[in-house]
């Protein structure tokens, strides 16, 4: 059985400049995928696997999606729970500090009002003197 180029559907001869995708294992003419001769030679001489554009896109899409195991998710959930507890503790501490400051402010206002009243009590108002 003769193989065909996946792009142009022409017969592939190994005397042609042909490249095989290591992922999908489909043969393609160098010219059909618009590959330069220099790139073709570099890939041919290299021992690195070559992937066509559709396979590269699939691989990159897989890399961009994160996969988590249940253990990973449980660990992240536990960390989030600890962070929430820590924040809740800080929140309660801040509420106590705010309440204490409000009580001190209220006491200071009362003391100031009492001192003003005492100052007014010591004043003498004289009427009718020319």
TrEMBL record:
Q: Which domain of life is it from?
A: Eukaryota
Please give the Gene3D superfamilies that the UniProt record associates with this protein. Answer: Zinc/RING finger domain, C3HC4 (zinc finger)
Q: Which Pfam families match?
A: PHD
Q: Which residues form a coiled coil?
A: 91-118
Annotated GO molecular function terms are:
zinc ion binding
Q: Which residues form the PHD-type domain?
A: 2-58
Q: What is the name attached to this protein's record?
A: PHD-type domain-containing protein
Provide the species name: Cryptolaemus montrouzieri
